[in-house]
Design goal:
heterodimer, A: MetI-like fold, B: 249 residues, alpha/beta
C-alpha cells in the first residue's frame, strides 16, 4: 500500500503477496468483463423492445420536464427534511425517557421505540391517510407524508442517540460532576454534544432511509419526485426512461448524503492525528 | 498537627464493599487545612476509592465523611455545591473532549458559579498561564500531550477556587518525561498552601511535598506517618516490603 492512510481493509487483512495480487487481477478482470456483458445485454434488450426509441427520451430535452421533476425533487427534500427534524426531536425525547431512572417512563419509551421500529412505514401512512380523516381531522398532504415517515424513523433515531450517549466515557460525566455541575447541565453541555458527534454517520444513514421513505408520498398525493415521475410516466407513456432518470436522481441525493457523513467522520478523527 | 483546629475533611469508620470485595475497611482519616496528604499503596489497596468517596463520586456503605464539620450531602443541589468546593484531578485527565482548552476551564465557573463569561475567560487565561499551557488555549484536548492535558485539567479545577484538591493518580497515565511537569505544578500548588489529598505512586513527590503519608493495603490504612519517618523507617512489615518492591525497580 503506497498510501499512508490505514483503511479498515488494512487492519483486517495483511498486505497481499505476489500470488494474491495476481489472483486479485484475474478476479477483477473477470468481474469487469461480466459487468460489461450485463450492460451490453441490458442495452440490447432495450434496443429490441424499442425502449431506446426517441419518443421515450425526447421529452427530457424540454425544460418543462426538468422544472416539473425539480418541483418534485423540492417536495421530496421538504418532506424528508421535515420528517428528519421531527424524527430527531421525537427521537431525542424517546432517548431521554429510555435512559431515565424512572422505570415506568423507561418502559413506556422502550415500548414506543419498539413499536415505531417494528411497524412498516406504509402502515403509518395509511393510518394518517385513511384513519385520521375519519375523525374529522384535516391535514395537508405534506403532513400526511412527513409525520408518518418521522414516526417510523424516530425509534431508530432514539436508539442511535442512546448508543452515542453510552459511548461517552464515564470520566466525562465524573469530571463535570466534580466541578459541581447538576445532572441536566452535565447531560446537555458535556455528554450529549459528544454523543451526537459519535453518531452523526448513523443519523445520516437514517436520513437516507427517510428520503427513500418519502417515495410513499404518492399514496397521499403529495407531489414529491416519485409522484411527479408517475405523472410524467402516464403523460408520455414512458415507464422505463423516467424510472431510470428518477433512480439516478435518488442515487445522487443519497450519495451526497453519504459523502457528507464520510467527511464529518473524517473530520472527527483529525484532532487525534494532529496530536503533538 | 494543630489539635485545636477542626479538620476540613474527616472520614470516620468508613466502610465500602464492591460486591464481595471489602474495598474500604474502617477508614479513619482527618485532613487539615493546608496539609498535603499523600496516599500510597499497592494497586487494589483502595486508595483511589478512598479519594473518590471524599466528593461522593463513590458512595460508602457505612461510617461518616465530614467536610468542614458537616456530613456530605446525599444528593441534589447541596451535593453539587459541595463538589464545587472540592477540586478533582483524574488519572485519565477527563478534559471535555469536544471543547477547547479555554472552554474546559470556563465551563465550571460559568455554569456553576454564574461568573460572567468575559471574567471567566480572563481568569481561565491566568490559570492556563500559571500551569504553562496558555499557548494551547484554542486547541481541543486530543491535540495536546498528556502532560499538557493534565496541567489544563488542574487549571480547570482551580477555576472553581476549591478549598481542597483531590488528585487520583494524576501521573499514572503519563509518559515518564511528562510526569515531572505535572508534579512541578502540584508542588507549586502545595507551596501556595492548597489543601491536597494525593493518591500517587511517585515516591519522590511524596517525600518532598507530603505533610503526611498514608500507606494503604487491602482496604485499610496500615501506616500513617511523616514522610521522612515513613520512607526511612517504616513501622510495619507490609510498608517495608512495599517500599522494597518499589526500590527494586
Amino acid at each position: 500500500m503506497s498510501s499512508v492512510r490505514i483503511s479498515a481493509r488494512d487492519m483486517l487483512y495483511e498486505e497481499p503477496g505476489p500470488k494474491a495480487k495476481r489472483r486479485i487481477r484475474i478476479v477483477t478482470g473477470i468481474s469487469l468483463a461480466a459487468l460489461a456483458a450485463l450492460a451490453a445485454a441490458v442495452i440490447h434488450r432495450f434496443y429490441i423492445t424499442g425502449q431506446l426509441d426517441p419518443r421515450y427520451w425526447s421529452f427530457f430535452a424540454r425544460g418543462t420536464t426538468w422544472t416539473f421533476l425539480g418541483k418534485g425533487l423540492l417536495g421530496t427534500m421538504e418532506a424528508a427534511l421535515m420528517a428528519g427534524v421531527l424524527a430527531f426531536a421525537a427521537g431525542f425525547f424517546l432517548m431521554l425517557g429510555r435512559i431515565s431512572s424512572i422505570r415506568l417512563l423507561r418502559g413506556l419509551c422502550i415500548a414506543l421505540i419498539e413499536f415505531t421500529r417494528g411497524v412498516p412505514t406504509l402502515l403509518f401512512i395509511y393510518f394518517f391517510f385513511l384513519v385520521i380523516p375519519q375523525f374529522g381531522i384535516q391535514m395537508d398532504a405534506f403532513w400526511k407524508i412527513s409525520i408518518p415517515v418521522a414516526i417510523s424513523a424516530c425509534g431508530v433515531v432514539a436508539e442511535v442517540l442512546r448508543s452515542g450517549v453510552n459511548a461517552v466515557p464515564k470520566g466525562q460525566t465524573e469530571a463535570a460532576l466534580s466541578l459541581g455541575m447538576r445532572g441536566r447541565s452535565v447531560f446537555l453541555k458535556v455528554v450529549f454534544p459528544q454523543a451526537i458527534r459519535f453518531v452523526i454517520p448513523a443519523l445520516i444513514a437514517e436520513l437516507v432511509i427517510v428520503v427513500k421513505d418519502t417515495t410513499f408520498a404518492y399514496v397521499v398525493n403529495f407531489p414529491d419526485l416519485m409522484q411527479n415521475a408517475k405523472v410524467l410516466i402516464s403523460n408520455y407513456d414512458a415507464l422505463l426512461s423516467v424510472y431510470l432518470v428518477v433512480a439516478v436522481i435518488y442515487i445522487v441525493i443519497n450519495y451526497l448524503l453519504n459523502r457528507l457523513s464520510d467527511r464529518i467522520a473524517a473530520k472527527q478523527k483529525k484532532p487525534a492525528e494532529r496530536r503533538a | 498537627m494543630n489539635e485545636t483546629r477542626e479538620p476540613i475533611i474527616s472520614l470516620r469508620h468508613v466502610d465500602k464493599h464492591f460486591g464481595a470485595l471489602h474495598v474500604l475497611k474502617a477508614i479513619n482519616l482527618d485532613v487539615y487545612k493546608g496539609e498535603v496528604v499523600v496516599v500510597i499503596g499497592p494497586s487494589g489497596s483502595g486508595k483511589s476509592t478512598l479519594c473518590r468517596t471524599i466528593n461522593r463520586l463513590e458512595t460508602i456503605d457505612s461510617g461518616e465523611i465530614l467536610f468542614e464539620g458537616k456530613p456530605l450531602p446525599l444528593e441534589g443541589k447541596e451535593l453539587a455545591a459541595l463538589r464545587s468546593h472540592i477540586g478533582m484531578v483524574f488519572q485519565s485527565f477527563n478534559l471535555f473532549a469536544h471543547m477547547s482548552i479555554l472552554d474546559n476551564v470556563t465551563l465550571g465557573p460559568v455554569d456553576v458559579l454564574h461568573t460572567p463569561k468575559k471574567e471567566a475567560r480572563e481568569e481561565a487565561r491566568r490559570l492556563l498561564d500559571r500551569v504553562g499551557v496558555l499557548s494551547q488555549e484554542s486547541k481541543v484536548p486530543a491535540q495536546l500531550s498528556g502532560g499538557q492535558q493534565q496541567r489544563a485539567a488542574i487549571a480547570r479545577s482551580l477555576a472553581m477556587h476549591p478549598k481542597v484538591m483531590l488528585f487520583d493518580e494524576p501521573t499514572s497515565a503519563l509518559d515518564p518525561e511528562m510526569i515531572g511537569e505535572v508534579l512541578d505544578v502540584m508542588t507549586t500548588l502545595a507551596a501556595d498552601g492548597m489543601t491536597m489529598v494525593v493518591v500517587t505512586h511517585e515516591m519522590n513527590f511524596a517525600r518532598r511535598v507530603a505533610s503526611r503519608v498514608i500507606f494503604m493495603d487491602s482496604g485499610s490504612i496500615v501506616e500513617e506517618a511523616a514522610p521522612d519517618a515513613f520512607f526511612t523507617n517504616p513501622r510495619t512489615e507490609r510498608a517495608r516490603s512495599f517500599l522494597q518492591s518499589i526500590h527494586g525497580h
